[in-house]
Amino acid sequence: MRPLPKMLAALGLLAPLGLLAALPARAAIEEGYVPGGAPVLSTWYGRADEAARQADRDYIRGMRPHHAGALTMARDYLADPEARSPALRRLAEAIIRNQSFEIGLLDDVARNLDQPPLVLGVGAFRMALQPMATEGVAQRQGFMRSPIPGVLDAAGPVTARDVQFAKGMTIHHQAALDMARAYQTNPAARNGFLALMNVDIVTDQSQEIALMRTVTAAYRGDAAAVQVDPSMIHGMEGMHGMAVPAEAKREKMKPGAAAPHAHHHH
């Protein structure tokens, strides 16, 4: 799947279809972003296939609310006066910025999937191409991804609330990795834009999990005693039969168990 040349769309000719395979794909999060450059939007197309479109819709139905849940968790954490780890605060801010943008990309893919296929052909030979995504959104919005703090940035005070956030968000991230990998291995899933987005999700969130585990290891108290109630892990409802990870259930607070003070703002 590649962005379809505008001339091809206008002429409706099959002869130039060979160009589709030759055009280089660029990452969904647009690694070629040029600050101040003029936005050039292009539509990604793929062969129209109802099973593939359903796979994309199922993925969006799970990943979009999951991303929204991460925003809620990050905002709750930043609003808590006990949230003191500089690295985790920077991470929460990056999650809000980066995943808000990714939610916009998912919404754009959903809008493209709702569009009718583009039918190209001459005579009896016809091909239906489904709009799948829009490239150039980051350039149009002037968006630059917030960097993820590295493990070397994990120095600083670590409170029980920091550990609670790190443990809860690690569970949340693992569910995102599961969804991304499930899409990548689904034979019906053919949206190259979502596939590239999943590469970013797996790469970024794996690094973020490593950071959160490093911060947790620096806690001077008993990190295992810091409980995370599953109700604090938002956005797991749309995971299409995927239960809340067992790790989250083990973290559920027992009656009388001590837990760090937390504020919830919805």
UniProtKB/TrEMBL annotation:
Keywords: Signal
Taxonomy, superkingdom: Bacteria
Location of the region described as Disordered in the Swiss-Prot/TrEMBL record: 247-266
Domain DUF305 span(s) in chain numbering: 52-108, 162-256
InterPro entries: Chaperonin_Cpn60_CS, DUF305_CopM-like, Ferritin-like
Sample GO molecular function, one term: ATP binding
Claim: Signal is one of the keywords in the record: yes
One annotated GO biological process: protein folding
Signal peptide positions (record): 1-27
Full protein name: Uncharacterized conserved protein, DUF305 family
Annotated organism of origin: Belnapia rosea
